[in-house]
Design brief:
single chain; alpha/beta; Rossmann fold; eight-stranded mixed sheet; 11 helices
């Protein structure tokens, strides 16, 4: 089922009487990032995925995004669908949104699943790198940025073995409006640090890291897990940053085992 909520493209799978799972994709992808995972969960759970504003089929609006505005979009989706205590699953930038939402509305969610993400805000070096990326998109176009991103986001093994999949991913990103890409970069530059909120999390949390993640290291996620009282940490062997695409079976198994053992 498709829904439009305040300009956001929302996809719904399964029966609404079951426990709801809300999936938030990372940058610079769209809701289809979760298709493989949702296909294995939709019979047991009420699964919701959506395109972050400016991505996929969601409206662009001004392109002047913040992590707060992304979080408000998530809140609106949950409110409009009348979801009671959903489980939030966020990947990379989607994890930033999930962490801020949980910090802001503590007690509103049943559990968190955080994949290849971090609580840390950008340091000065990272801010300058993102600012340079925005400038280069203006002067050189999107393709050099996309090529650089893909080489960092996927493991060497995946790049070598799956050139057709990688080309399909690249084409989808190339079709995005450059304003959305730059807007999301600005949102990440300006995001707040949510590290201190980890000590206060009482709900179950699954953290999924990847052995060959060159963007968010396994050590970073281990440090996060150590700060959360009720956490489960899984590291996917041989995977790069986009772990649900590189290791779909292992990723889905980690999610299923967490849900089975936590509730």
């Amino acid at each position: 089922m498709n829904k439009r909520i305040n300009g956001i493209n929302v996809k719904i799978f399964g029966e609404e009487t079951k426990q709801s799972l809300v999936f938030i994709h990372g940058f610079p992808f769209d809701h289809t990032l979760w298709d493989g995972v949702i296909s294995k969960l939709k019979d047991e759970y009420y699964c919701i995925s959506y395109d972050i504003r400016g991505f996929g089929d969601s409206e662009l609006n001004t392109g002047q995004y913040t992590m707060e505005s992304f979080t408000e979009d998530l809140e609106n989706i949950i409110a409009r669908l009348e979801l009671d205590k959903p489980i939030i699953c966020g990947f990379s930038m989607g994890g930033y949104i999930a962490l801020r939402a949980n910090e802001k509305l503590r007690g509103s969610y049943k559990a968190l699943i955080l994949a290849n993400t971090t609580t840390s805000s950008d340091n000065d070096e990272a801010k300058l790198k993102r600012a340079e990326a925005i400038s280069n998109i203006d002067t050189k176009g999107v393709e050099p940025f996309v090529d650089g991103f893909l080489s960092a986001a996927f493991s060497k093994d995946f790049i070598k073995k799956e050139p057709l999949k990688l080309e399909k991913i690249k084409n989808k990103i190339m079709n995005l409006n450059p304003t959305a890409i730059k807007g999301a970069l600005l949102a990440m530059i300006s995001r707040t640090d949510t590290t201190r909120s980890l000590d206060d999390i009482e709900i179950p949390v699954l953290l999924i890291s990847a052995e060959n993640d060159n963007i968010i290291s396994p050590d970073t996620m281990t440090q996060m897990a150590n700060k959360i009282k009720n956490s489960t940490l899984v590291c996917l062997s041989g995977s790069g940053h986009v772990s649900m695409l590189e290791k779909p079976d292992e990723f889905t198994s980690a999610v299923k085992n967490f849900l089975k053992n936590s509730f």
